[in-house]
Each structure stands twice: as C-alpha cells, then as structure tokens.
Amino acid sequence: MADVILVLNAGSSSIKFSAFDVKDDELELVTRGQVEGLFSSPHFVAFDSKGEKTGENKWGDGQKLEHADAIAYLGAFLRGHGAGHRLIGVGHRVVHGGAQFTKPVLTSPEVLDELEKLTPLAPLHQPHNLKPIRIVAERNPDLPQVACFDTAFHATQAPLAQAFALPESITKNGVRRYGFHGLSYEYIASALPDIAPDAARGRTVVAHLGNGASLCAIHAGKSIASTMGFTAVDGLMMGTRCGNLDPGVILYMLDELGMNAREIEDLLYRGSGLLGVSGVSGDMRALLASDDERARFAIDLYVYRIGREIGSMSAALQGLDAIVFTAGIGEHSKEIRQRVCEQAAWWGIELDRKANESGGPRISTASGKVSAWVIPTNEELMIARHTFALIDDKREGAST
Ligand code: ADP
C-alpha cells in the first residue's frame, strides 16, 4: 500500500492542496487542487499529476463552506480517489514561525498554542494557516502534522540584516525583519546545485515574482537578506501591495486624510501595487496586454523597483554572480525578465534573447559576468519533503 503525504495551504477564503506518493523515499505528485471562494461561491477543483481535471464541484452563490466543511469534503474526495493509499502525514504552510521556530516542526497542542501567539505578527494569514491543523488534529489525533514556515529560511540572516533602527522598547516585542517566501527560496536553493552549480556556490539574488513579490540574497545556499521585512507588504511593488513606503506617508494618511488603521491596511495590501498605480488591474498579464498609459507606467515602476532592490541585495552579498527568476511572473513573463535583465546589464548580465523566449533555464550568454536563470518554484514539494523527513525521524526514533 503506497504511503501518501498531504500538503495544505490555507488562506482566509481558500484551501490549496497537493498529495504526494512516497516511492522509495522519493516524493511524486499524485493530485493537486483547491477549494476557493469558501464564503462567497465555493468551488472545488482537482487535477492529476499531468494537469488533467479529476474532480470539480460548485456550491453556487450565497452558499458558505467553513474551513472544516472544506477539509471534510477534501478528505472524502481523496479517500474516494486514493484506493490503495495510506495517509501518513499532513504538511501545512504557516506564514510565521517568529524567532522561535526556525525549522519545520511536528505540531502538538503546545506548539499550536505558541504559533497562535504569533498572530499579531501576521493577523491576515496566521489564524487561517493554523485552523486546518486543529481541524485535522481533532478528527485524527494520531496523524502526524508538520508546520512549515515562510520565515524559517531567513533565520540564517545576521542580526544586522534583521534589525530596524527603532528603540528596544519596540523591538523587544518581536518587531524586526523576518522575510517571507522562505519555502520558495529554500526550494530554489535545493534545485540550484543541479541546474546552476556556480550560482549555488556563489552570490545569487532570487526574484520571487508572483502576486506577492520579493527578492532574496542567497550566499552558498543561505539567506543573507530579503526585501520583505516585518510583514509581507515591504520591499518590491506587488500585484496589490505597495512595497517600500516612507512611514511618513502612513502618518499623512492618518493625520491629513483622516483614514483609520483598517482603511490604511486595505489600501496598502489590496489597493496599491500594480492595481493601485495602473487603476487597471493587479494582474501582470492584463497590464502587459493593455495600451493604457497608466498600465505602462505601473510596469515601468515595477521593473525600476526590482532594479533598485537588486542593488540593495547585491550590496548585502558584496557582489553578484547570478539572478534567478521564479513564481508566476518570473516563470512566465519573458518581457518582464528581459526588462529586468536589461536594467541590470551594468552588473554584467547579457541576456540570451532566444533562451529567454524559450524559458531557460539559463537565459544569459556564457560570456556575461553574471548569469541569469528561470527555475519554477515548488513550495508544496518543499513542504512534503520536510513533512516526510520529520515523520521518518519520528519512526526511526520510535524503533531505536
Ligand atoms: P501567487 O503569488 O498567488 O502564487 P503566482 O505565482 O501564480 O501568484 O503569480 C501570479 C502573477 O503571475 C499574476 O500577476 C499573473 O498575471 C502573472 N503571470 C502568470 N502567467 C503570466 C504570463 N504568461 N505573463 C505574464 N504574467 C503572468
């Protein structure tokens, strides 16, 4: 009977899932999908490893699914489609591990209580990430579950890279730079030795350009600095988030524009970035297809901000050997990759246009000083690997 690991990534209104077969200690994707629109018009869809649809269900407008209902539905679907499979563990994406959890951890009621205490550091994500762990534990207390953190990969950063220039009365509460997208960067760091051994040993800036976007400075596989800080709103311009902002602007919104904290939060997280600047869309595909002047300006600003932050990451690395593009925009938009590389040409990047058109993995010429790459990320596989490793350790521990 094949062993299976389930990976869950739960947000406020959606649960994404993937299931991996364990075959001779290798993990192989068997199914993936999501339930989205939990509180508006729930929609479930599942695919096999080749991307063929294997299941779909729509609940219709006005219907609601609690996270517990969605997980029960998902469990029934997986049992129905997984004849001959045995679920051995569940891995979860959890946005914040704080200063305490710098590695994935097997969950327990005590661990969950500690993770709950980090909610003030990520109020929009942490409670939703933890909910499914409690739901699964209630139904199946003996099933091992593992929490994998978006912050953990950045725990190797030096105290200087993590610090804000604020007094201790504030920073003692955990107010510092943490960095996010860590599971994506960890996956890229694990893939680099096979794809680009020099980049794996050297000073590499990885650009995770999805709806959320950040850069990570990686030296010999370890995170040195990143553009995201205390929250995932810092750094690069994103789909709907503003990125770097003079804190004085927030005071201006409070004092002069009469906005309250929730209104400012909504503007910074959901009304800024590509969407706010263009007034057209937060989706890069729509902006690239638009001939609206504001859409063009939004793309110009997006590329300009990446260029400036590559400078900052390279300074932290004391040099630059390679750039890696990943996530939705990084993996699929040859135009954005081309523009970022052209802007960073002064570093010694020479774009190989043909290779860029065909998607890489190497998209720079051999003669350039700095190489450029496209590597698809796989955060789910990273979570499944961590989950399997911790379950395996537990089994070995039990047998010795
Ligand atoms: P998330 O951060 O939600 O996981 P993704 O990594 O899927 O998001 O990235 C979504 C972004 O990728 C969107 O802005 C989308 O427009 C962009 N994207 C996807 N495919 C393309 C493409 N072919 N060209 C340009 N942008 C693309």
UniProtKB/TrEMBL annotation:
ATP binds at K16, H208, L209, G210, N211, G212, D283, M284, R285, G328, I329, G330, E331, H332. Pfam families: Acetate_kinase (PF00871). Gene3D superfamilies: 3.30.420.40. Keywords: ATP-binding, Cytoplasm, Kinase, Magnesium, Metal-binding, Nucleotide-binding, Transferase. The record marks H181, R241 as: Transition state stabilizer. One of its GO terms (biological process) is acetate metabolic process. Mg(2+) binds at N9, E379. The keyword Nucleus does not apply. One of its GO terms (cellular component) is cytosol. SUPFAM superfamilies: Actin-like ATPase domain. It catalyses: acetate + ATP = acetyl phosphate + ADP. It is an enzyme of class 2 (transferase). Its EC number is 2.7.2.1. Its cofactor is Mg(2+); Mn(2+). The active site is at D150 (proton donor/acceptor). It is found in: Cytoplasm. Substrate binds at R93. InterPro entries: Ac/propionate_kinase, Aliphatic_acid_kin_short-chain, Aliphatic_acid_kinase_CS, ATPase_NBD. The keyword Transferase applies. Belongs to the acetokinase family. This is Acetate kinase. It comes from Caballeronia arvi. The lineage of its organism: Bacteria, Pseudomonadati, Pseudomonadota, Betaproteobacteria, Burkholderiales. The gene is ackA.
